[in-house]
Amino acid sequence: MMGGWYHAPKPGLREAAEADVASYRNLTPAERDGRVVAVCRAAYAILRSRADFAAAAGYTDPLPKDFDAIWNRLRARRTHKASHGSR
Question: Relative to the CA of 53, which of 26, 35, 42, 80 has its CA 20 to 30 Å away?
């Protein structure tokens, strides 16, 4: 047992997920891009239809309080790896 949190997936879940993505497996990059563009256009149309469009489109999630510390730690790690080779 894996700490008591693991639950086996429901029977057929893997097959259902595979069926959901099957049509995407053999797409060319251009076909995939076309689908992404279509989704983005649909999302923009929904957003544009909102009465609070300007506020919703301009909203930015606030950064977490520890963002600066995390960002600086990641930058330091990247700088260290770049100067010492990645290991």
Answer: 35
